[in-house]
Amino acid sequence: MEQLRALPPDAELPVGFTIAELLDKLTPPPAPPGSVFRLDPDRLAAAGGSAGGQLSAMAALTPGRFEGSGGHADQRSEVQAIVLWYPVVDMRLAGRTDESAQPITRFLGDPTDDRALVASPIAYVSRACPPVLTISGDADPVSILAHNQAFHAALDAHGASNRLEVFEAGHGFDVSPAYWDRSFELLADFLDEHLPVARPAQSGTGSAPPV
Length: 211
Fold this sequence. Notes:
single chain; alpha/beta; Rossmann fold; 6 strands; globular
């Protein structure tokens, strides 16, 4: 069962945004997010890295399809933007090393291509996809660059807004401060572009206040 919690007030985030984190907890389900954190359901972004990137992409690309039985069936599940760090967008085993295939095998059991595609974000690309930012490494054996490039080619083919940023790095590169600074800058710019925050003009000047 997943538990939703807000990050501490001093967590670093773009001005005007709130971050909530999904946790695996054997606890009662939380109340709907809007009632707890007063979030705007028309300005939600899903973000995650690695397996979390796969889950974020699946949730964002299949609203209403894999809802489960956790409650709150009356709540909307659409998001308006997706940010993915080194995601697994294609769960098929072709082209994978034994090491990178093991987590998929543990997750899917018998990972035939048909079974793997059901859990692959690349299978759900459509014109209705929200804007997508993917931050990938060029030497990642888990989040394979060719898979991410194919994912974004499919987004292009459907006319969906998207951006792929490739770092000279392997898996989990954003733990490095240098990579994280650039990753966070990309995140902030992407959210500002696609989920802009309305900032009131200063009285008498007509300009926005400094941030």
